[in-house]
Amino acid sequence: MPGTLLFGIDVESASEDSLGMARWGAELFSELEVPVTWYVTGKTLEKYPEAFQEAAQCPQIDLQSHTYSHILLKTVLLQVPPGREIHGATDWYLRRGGSLEEIEADLAKCQGIFREVLGAPATALTGPWNYYRGLGDRPDLLEIVDRLGFRALRTFGRDEHDGQPVPLAWQPFFYRVQGFPHLLEIMIHDYQDDFSWEAFAAPKPGETYLEHLKSVADQVAREDLVWSMASHDHGCATLQACEERKGWWRGILRYCRELGFRFLTVSQFYQERILARS
What mean pLDDT do residues 240-249 have? Predict the structure, then answer.
């Protein structure tokens, strides 16, 4: 097989961007018949329940959790690359994670909203901002997410400097060593979105994110890898803006289809890995 794509979009802002995503985002994936996972914050689901209930009817869309309030599960300490300015910093940038008590309360609240709005709790979770090693160095957090019913995690999305890109050589894995062999980390590879690429890669004039993604896809195809690709609901407040946002989504999905990729939601991928292990 030439590669597997897990496309996940963080729908996080509980704003007109999120509502626009719910209204118009499903059209692209229905058009291309490409499965996708939307990681929705509980506050977004709570604010626009009817819109996401309707989106959940699309067979291509798998709705999963992005915490309730976008609370960080771990602290991010980013070493800014030389010559860059990221989040207003030129050397180090710190973003604090929540306490265990805050995180557990937040995730429990999110699961309650998923039950209320969609009829079932989420089984997959994306950690806001993502982290180096995912939750591999935090078995206390793994205990919490396990107890609350999460099985697939998307929390490993930074390199050893808490930056990006994340190498494709780092592939999905189970948290067996930590004592949770049924919890699967699917990661976020490369950059977390086009704005992350612009910040960390400092592209030259004329370089485009789509062309960069095509080079990533070529590697995935050559080496038959799993590629967990990320984007966000940012810039989807109007139909015109959402169409512009979907430009590179459509471009890379069509390119991956030409290469013969498999497309899976996180739920499909988790079940495949569990069965393969059995």
Answer: 86
